[in-house]
């Protein structure tokens, strides 16, 4: 059997895309690259399921043609995958050609043929398409997250931080986070704590002043009363050393207060 002279597209498979409740069309293109006229004819194993337009004809040298293969509406079954088409061709005789007579009396040794199988694609419903899109988006997000994590780890080795990785991490892990700054909240908390400590120190300072004033009054009362009471033969220490002790205590408390503000 001679080699097929026609160029056929597609070469091996006719694809039909549903829904199959309406006629579905697949295009078959034939081209004649030779310098002779070529006759062609389209056959199928399921003639009741298809309508082919045109199903036969003659191609002049360099001519091409698109053939519409229409699958008739039906309930698709597994047998449809076994449907096949065959493109037969042969060089046309000289003069006027009677197509019916020529194909009836054709010489099989001169006949060229090419077989094509059929493939059917069911449409994807909206819900399935949305699920597929969600899965694809999740895969893309995970891939980007892995890339950012790897980049962040590489920067940690140099002591640096990747700002894009951080921003991205917030955007992924906390999509509903507010636009407020965490640093501003931390500064506000620290300021409130300082104010509270300052108020506490002010109260302690007021108490120290009151205590110092009370001690001064006691010293004045003792000086105004004259001599100091004695117990037995021993006398109590003079008033001046006691004043030094009080002043040292006050100086220590003031130092403690200043130390808190400095820290």
From TrEMBL:
Topology of the protein relative to the lipid bilayer: Single-pass type IV membrane protein
Subcellular location: Membrane
Membrane keyword on record: yes
Domain spans labelled MSP: 5-121
Annotated Pfam families: Motile_Sperm
GO terms under biological process: endoplasmic reticulum membrane organization; endoplasmic reticulum-plasma membrane tethering
Primary residence: membrane
Family per record: Belongs to the VAMP-associated protein (VAP) (TC 9.B.17) family.
Protein name, as recorded: Vesicle-associated membrane protein-associated protein A
The organism of origin for this protein: Orchesella cincta
């Amino acid at each position: 059997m001679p080699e097929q002279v026609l160029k056929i597209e597609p070469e091996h498979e006719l694809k039909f895309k549903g829904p199959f409740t309406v006629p579905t069309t697949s295009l078959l293109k034939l081209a004649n690259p030779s310098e002779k006229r070529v006759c062609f004819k389209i056959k199928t194993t399921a003639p009741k399921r298809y309508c082919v337009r045109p199903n036969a004809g003659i191609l002049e040298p360099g001519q091409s043609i698109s053939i519409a293969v229409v699958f008739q509406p039906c309930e698709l079954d597994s047998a449809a995958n076994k449907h096949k088409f065959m493109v037969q061709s042969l060089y046309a005789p000289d003069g006027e050609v009677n197509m019916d007579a020529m194909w009836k009396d054709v010489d099989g040794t001169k006949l060229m043929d090419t077989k094509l199988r059929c493939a059917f694609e069911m449409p994807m419903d909206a819900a399935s398409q949305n699920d597929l899109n969600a899965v694809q988006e999740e895969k893309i997000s995970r891939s980007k997250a892995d890339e950012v994590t790897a980049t962040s780890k590489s920067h940690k080795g140099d002591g640096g931080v990747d700002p894009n990785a951080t921003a991205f991490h917030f955007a992924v892990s906390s999509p509903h986070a507010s636009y407020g700054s965490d640093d501003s909240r931390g500064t506000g908390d620290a300021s409130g704590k300082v104010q509270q400590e300052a108020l506490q120190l002010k109260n302690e300072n007021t108490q120290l002043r009151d205590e110092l004033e009370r001690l001064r009054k006691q010293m004045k009362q003792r000086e105004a009363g004259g001599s100091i009471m004695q117990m037995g033969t021993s006398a109590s220490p003079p008033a001046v050393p006691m004043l030094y002790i009080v002043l040292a205590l006050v100086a220590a408390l003031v130092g403690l207060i200043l130390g808190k503000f400095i820290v």
